[in-house]
Design a protein that fits this description.
This protein is α+β, with helices and mostly antiparallel strands. It is built from 5 helices and 7 strands. Strand 3 and strand 4 form a beta hairpin.
């Protein structure tokens, strides 16, 4: 499948919002109640917050035929060389085509971080399987109160090596 990975632009906001909503609903069905998902999505992916993310973090989008089908959001690299992968989402029908790997690889190549950290919901088997396959290791597990709903969260880290291919 032909796809393009590039930095997100302001005009991409509505498409990225749609990817986030669709992939969240697919991933967290039966894990997080829909109304809690929607409350979170409406806040975290509001236009105001998306503009803030564009200004203060790095977002790469994956595009097929001019349509955005996925994205990854990285924090700025901290003084200790680590970066937080806050989100990596793809429309369900585009998962398993190498785009998630490409979004992660670009983060490794472009950001120059020594470690990539992330939190993933323990019952998100698609996410946890993907991160384990890419070499992420579990650092810790904890319970997280997500708007009144308790989640089991796994903290993972990938130690980045020079010229690393995942």
């Amino acid at each position: 499948m032909d796809y393009l990975i590039r930095k997100m632009k302001k005009r991409d906001i509505s498409q990225v919002q749609h990817v986030a909503k669709t992939s969240w609903h697919s991933t967290y069905e039966g894990i997080i109640p829909l109304e809690i998902q929607d409350k979170f999505l409406n806040s975290a992916y509001s236009v105001v917050n998306m503009k803030r993310r564009l200004k203060h973090s790095t977002i790469f989008v994956s595009e097929v035929g001019g349509k955005i089908v996925g994205f990854a959001n990285y924090s700025p690299v901290s003084v200790d060389g680590s970066v937080e992968l806050g989100a990596i989402y793809l429309y369900p029908e585009y998962q398993g085509n190498g785009m998630g790997t490409a979004l992660l690889q670009l983060g490794i190549e472009r950001l120059g971080a020594s470690e990539i950290h992330l939190n993933v919901e323990k019952n998100n088997t698609i996410g946890t399987t993907f991160y384990h396959a890419k070499g992420f290791e579990v650092k810790s597990e904890f319970e997280d109160n997500f708007d009144g709903h308790m989640l089991k969260t796994v903290r993972m880290v990938l130690k980045v090596k020079e010229g690393m291919e995942i």
